Amino acid sequence: MTNAETLIRKGKSGAAAFVQAECMANKAAGTSSGLPSAVTQPPAHLQALLDYLLHPSNAIGDSETIDWCRWLVGGGQKPEDFSTKVQEYNNTNMCGLVWTANFVAYRCSTCRISQCMSLCRDCFHSGNHIAEGHDYNMFKSQAGGACDCGDASVMRTSGFCSKHGRCSDKHVAGPPDELLCVAENMLPKLILRLVQHLREKSVNLTENPNSRQNISLEDADGFLTLLHDFCEMGSAMRHVIIGCLVNSKIYTSLTQNILKDDSEYANYMRKSSDKYNAAVSGLPSPDPSKKFCECPALNSSLVHTTFLEELLFWTVRYEFPQKLVCLLLNMLPDQKYKELFTRAFVLHYSRMSTMLDKSGISETLSNRVIHVSVQLFSNEALTLQMTEDLHLVHIIVFSIKNMMSTVLTLNTLGDVQQNYHEIVDCGEHVMKDHCYWPLVSDLNNVLSHPSIAYKFMEDEKQLAMWFDFLPMFQGMNVNNREMKAHIEFEPNTYYAAFSAELEAASSPMWSLVSHLKDASSRHLTTNVIKHCLGAIKNWFDAIYFLRPDQLDRLKMSFHLPLHRYFAVFLRQAVKYQGFSLDDLLPDKETLHLMMMHPLGVQVAFYEIMNHLWVRNGLQIRGQAMTYIQCHFSNSMADPDIFLLQICSTRLDPSVFLKTILERFHVRPWLSLAAEKEPEPLNLAEQEQEGPMMESALIFLVSLLTLRTNLGLSEQDLTRLELATLLFMDDRTHSSLSEQMPEKNGNGVPDDFESFLSEVGSFREPQFEPGGVMQQGLYVPKPEIWETMYDPIYVLLRAVHRREFQNSLDRFIAYSQKNGKVNSDSGEKNGTLWPPWRLPTACDPSFTDPRTILHSRFAHGLIFNLLYKGVYGVGSSGEKKECSEQILSLTVFLLELALSFPQTDYSGKELAVSTPWLIVHEPLDLDYESWFPTNWLSANLRHTVTALFTNHVSDPNTSMEVDQVSDTGSNSDSETTPYFVETPTSDVHDSSSPPRLQSSQHSAITMSPSSSNALLPFPSGTMEHITSVVLQSSRAKNDGTVDLSRALLELPMDEDEEVGALGLIPRPDPAFHSQQQLSSNAHRSVVNINESIISLLVKLHSKLSGKPDSYTPKPERGKVPSLAHTLTPEYAESRIGDACFFVEKVLDKICDLDSACEHFVKHIRAQLWPVQHAKDSMEDLEQERDEIEARKRRAKERQAKMMEDFAERQKRFMRKNEETEDITDKDSDHETSTVCNEYDCVHCHQTQASTLDKPIGLVVLMQATSVLGHKHNNNEHLSLPVREEDRSKLAVDDSLSTEYESRLEELMRHFDPTSYLLSVNSGWQGGVSVQSCGHHVHLDCQQSYMESLKNTANSQASLVLMVEKGEYMCPMCRQLANGVLPIPPDKEFLKAKSQCPVSIGRELTDILKMPTKPMINQSNMYSMMNQIMESLTKATYPQYHHLDSVHAIVMFVSSIARTNLELDLVSRGGTLLTAKTILNSPLPSSFRPRTCFLPLLQVLAIHMKIRFPKSMVTDWCQITGLWQNEEERSLMVRKNEVPILLKDPSTLLLHFTLILPLQMDKMFFVSIVRQLYNLCWMQACLKVACRLPPELRAQLRDEWNRKVSQNETPSYVKVDTVLLGIGLVCSVLELSRIFDDNVDDPRHSTATRLSADVSLQGYVQAECLNYMRIASLLRHYLYNDTIPDIWEEDWEFTRLAQHLGMADIDISGRVSSGPCLGWLTAPANLCYTWCREIGEFAQLSYLSARRLILVNSSWKQPQLLRLPKNYDSIFQFYYKRVCPNCMKVPKDPSICLLCGAMVCLKESCCKFLASGNFEAVRHSVECGAGTAPYLAVNSATIVVIRGKRACIWGSIYLDSYGEEDRELKRGKPLFLSVERYHFLESQWLTHRFDHTNRKWIWHRENL
Fold first, then answer.
1. Could you tell me the pTM of the whole model?
2. How far apart are CA 1613 and CA 1723, in angstroms?
3. Is the pLDDT of residue 522 over 50?
4. What element of type H or E holds 1170?
């Protein structure tokens, strides 16, 4: 017998004990020998047993083998006891719990050091995070993770739980030798068995490349579970496992030494080794560069020396199986193991990266890789060690680069012939599926450590590799603009490109920049910028981009990471590290080249927004929107703009601005020439030129005003970003935090909350009209609209242009609401211009971009735009108004120039030097030739008289545009309603020399045949001339002037001639361009004769509609009404209309210098002489009078229309008035009929309802169990969140339960013909009928339904069950499923007498009369049948049993009862006015219109037809009005329910439905009062049953005494509560119904009334519910208003008066006794009632007592009360086992009606009989088809309503009033009481269908 067999015979426990003893002996022998430690061999018996159990031929997952291993390791102890014992020696201070995907964990921002920090649930709740109010969130892990509690390198020690870290300094002694001696000998063999299995199951990747998807370790699951269990025993056992994994000698001994033997096992190991070697060679590493050949992780050969390394290899090979990964990660708390594991992971990293793009489960594999790497690289010290020892950063970068190199393609952005640049193909699997994401994530994680980032930036080889990698993204995803046909196939690769740049390029960039904070790292920044510039230049060479004009204007790529790297590092260096721009910027030629591609991106963005790329499809617009989206803007748009801002200050302004205009295709629009120069490419249609001009100005203003990177601090930038988001729309807190532009994924800044409180105000969650729920929102504070609203910045951040427009609308609304509008035109509600905001000061380290505005080119551009704005010249010379947006931007550009002081400029000397005259040619669009200098003051006053065009034309067709006659002086112009003259002379001032004086000729125009020349003039003739184009008034017919003739007319001395002076200043070549014209060439010239100031003055008048409308500040000071315009607030305001901003600019021009101020005065005086101004004012007054007359006539017409409408409305109201009470009391049987008419919403005809053409009310019928959920006490109705709370939740004391037991009692003892007519049903599964109040004809409705049925595929069929009668009301679109017919009006039945007894006998006679059936053949009859059929089908079959006529009657009357009770519920449960207002579920405006009266009419007709017997018997039993005793004995049958056990409210409804509804109110009062007598006696009987015996005896004796004193006992008055109770006690004293010992102690009726209780109050309370029902019935029958009741103790009194049971003039409170109205001897009648009860009590006193004590006072129905904190619900129900299927539901949901947990959307609890899933079935059982569920895992409410379901919303909101559906943010959630009340009100009032629109068909699958 072998050793193994011997041990097996001993059994598991015996063998384990024997093995343990042998191991201890072996260990003692080894210790005593003193030999060096070597690989210890297991003892012989254990070795034999392990060879037998773990033989490779045995299945690794064999459960018996695993069980043997558990026993053996325990050394004879039970596995559970052994595990507990080992855990006692756990001395780790780190949790290290490892989890996989979908595990719920926590993250605390307050305690974290690393972004990746996470905590398990136990550690989180054992810490101080909740108690101290930390900023934490709960999340579902996407890739898996591990608990970091106790790890001080990841989180702060203050956040450690009580088990780890701060309070857990464990100094536990080591375990005894005998405890783990077997484990030390067994575990190497166990690990070897796992390795053998992994080798055996491996597949050679080279031979089977498609085999990855078939890899599985399911058969080893049990074996891995065994090892997991060992790890969970604590640090002691983990130490043993780690020793086996990292010991190279053990690995060599077990895997290599055995290969030398010649045995069967050795042969197996050799084959295993071959498979292992094949697997290693099948997973090669990419070839490294020569610079890093020595890197061990990139060697082609892979050598493993430990089990840990080989297991990690198999982890990579098997694509990171979760159970194996978790096993290896479980031991990370051991620091030595963590270092060795990280080293092994780095050695396999490059091979792992090759798996990512080749795997069939790349997304899953990516998550699993991150699961491992994030645990390793978050530790800075460990990561630095790996970087120094194994070149970790290089390996990661190399792996990313290698992955991308497999998907390279030739770039098409540059010259196709000369280009050799390659970029990534965004359509490849690597890019589309983000296979690179784990590598990039690791790189960002590593670079977040400062020490590693510094090493990266100072390593030349590393930076060279990085900037070899980045060009792979430079210019990727090239877009080619389609110019002819629409693109056939729209690519969907653009988001892959944006994601790649953001993740692989931008995120590392921000990680690196974040460490460059001061001058200590200047050398690193210099190194990065040097390599970046080199990469950019190399890229230019690669795409053959040598000149700016080589850029293809039809191609564009949004991706320029190299440019953005340069911009970001440049900004960081200058702002924080003390660099100057000169230190880092390249030469101007290179900078000009660098400018072109970012400029192209900006131009393309605006082209796309203006639909120039429309033929490229929707995807191109998606690219533009993504470019400025919040997650990308900081990394893409902002650096681009910053780089362009730098270029604008470094390049020549004319070159920069000219490039912008050319790129935006606006030169044709700007041209003033009649004939345009032909464009080489028609890049913009004529209708697109205007929008592109507007976009060009917006872009230019953006460059000039944005200070994102030029001066704003990070704090100011955060404020501005938050304010901008709030300007666009009111936003939730999460929306604000999510849409804040990101840098490096760091989330919101630390000071986010404080800045948010500065700019925004929190608005609590609200409800919109109609019940729409709003979340908590932040709204902008009012003051920031004036101080921070910047339209340019809004445009920069607005993804959709509607967001910008919305912000502008909100700004205008604020301005007008608060009276902030400034208007120089006098119109306070005029059209406001956008408040373009002046920029803040630029950072001193940078040059302000506004410097480009101090150039002749900029001044010429502004002049051009103003000219087009004043005269409205289109691009083809036609009259065309310039858009206000362009005008406002133009004026703002000029304001920007005026707001920036001009300290140094060229040309000033020329303007003040020796007098001379220059004759030159200003060319169209050549703005530098329009002005003589860059001096703004001079150019503002400079008059441009004419422009030449470069286009050569026929001399016969060349034209001169005379602006004076053609535009300026046209009094009939539509745009200028006044006379405008053009100034012909300049004003003289002291600041600049005077101009040339000429009385006849103020200017001359050169002849085309003449050459330009400098014209000297003798001194004394002129002091100064302005360099203008001189224009002669004596022009020839062809529009030209002979130059020599013009010169002769100049005033000169006779002895002087042209050119006589030798010393004449030469003009600056930049100022004037000499052009020689051919003598035979004729060119167009456009007369201008305007200055910038004159254009502004005219523009002001044009916009205001008044001549000479601008008033300078000195003159405004003299006008009191304009005094406010001189205040600082007015000057600083940015809120106003067009005239306000033009005035603001003119004011600044006047303030610039005195010359400008005098020039403005001169222009005004010249343009508008006094007389002309008076004529213009008269014309204006006449026009204004005409406008006022038109307005007056319009108002009169409007008033007349309103009067007509009001009259029609009055007629309509009179037509629909209810029938008034009949006041003629002289006639005995006089009848009257009031005919009501109704409007059909289909045909819009108004008529009465008739039998042949009936009209009905649109109604919605639905089953309801709201009433059944009333309870005696609501205090216990709370959702359990602890085990001990479950017993407290008792929902079986509900009204439905009690009334169901009542019906069962009646059923057992009485005849069905009696008990079915004694009570109502419908408490559970009743029918609710609601209406929207609209009417339809029956035939119209039938046609409408037929049309719906015929359109089976319409949208209606998707949301309606048309075959079930569902439709949407044609008028209000509310759901409906029936038409409630309105019977024709019948005759009114008048009472013959006022005597109560006579009225009682009249009713007796009426009840004996047979009813008149309805005509069967009428349409009304069929409509009645149809609605009753619909009412029957509205509820579920189990809730009605219509198997007899009596059951049908019960069902019919119960419908009326249900709707009355529901009406009472909707009023708050009482008729108190205050309580109705406060406790009503819905405000009165939301309540559905009542349809009870039409419903009652329909039910009455069916009741009269179906009622099986005459109600006269019941009436006589109640009133005692029998003709004789014989009649009573004949009519009252045996086995009938005693009258005192019948429900008075039920009898009231029966009488109402049997009698004519149009009867005298006196009849109704009589019925109500007689039934009150019954109700009162029932209350007395109920009180008697609950009184103490001694009190009962006292009252009985008092009654007997009174009877004995009366000669006629039957006529003793019963008019007090005490007498009533005494009577009852006297008659029933011998029955046992007063025995309260038989009551159930848990039941509410077991409560005994004390002797001092107010019996009067108790009786009133018992009668109140009946009186409320009666009052509501009277209200609907007679339209009597329910009285106002403001105090609870007055309700009985007011209702008694309202019902006619008490005198309305009584001032005090009414008791219950005086309300009685006996028609016969009360004592005798009460004796009869009580004797019936006594007879029944003799048969069953228990049943009699239970039926007497049925509760009639119930609390309002309500949903279960919920805890304030949602976490308590989540913790209790998450992973809770379902009591039905005994499984953990994937989506546990809780019924809020009863607290039951159901498996939502799962078939585990499916009801096989009906096929219903559990949630649907429970909704029918608990809520009659309507039930709200709380979905635990998503914190949302799921409402099931019939066949539909919807996501209602969430009742739990975070601290900012936001929902967190699916718990994605994981913030703490708190109960929103308002929302929960709203949900409850919708349930109570059956309004789910009306307020929720997003329903789906659940198809029984919920």
1. 0.82
2. 7
3. yes
4. helix 1170-1215
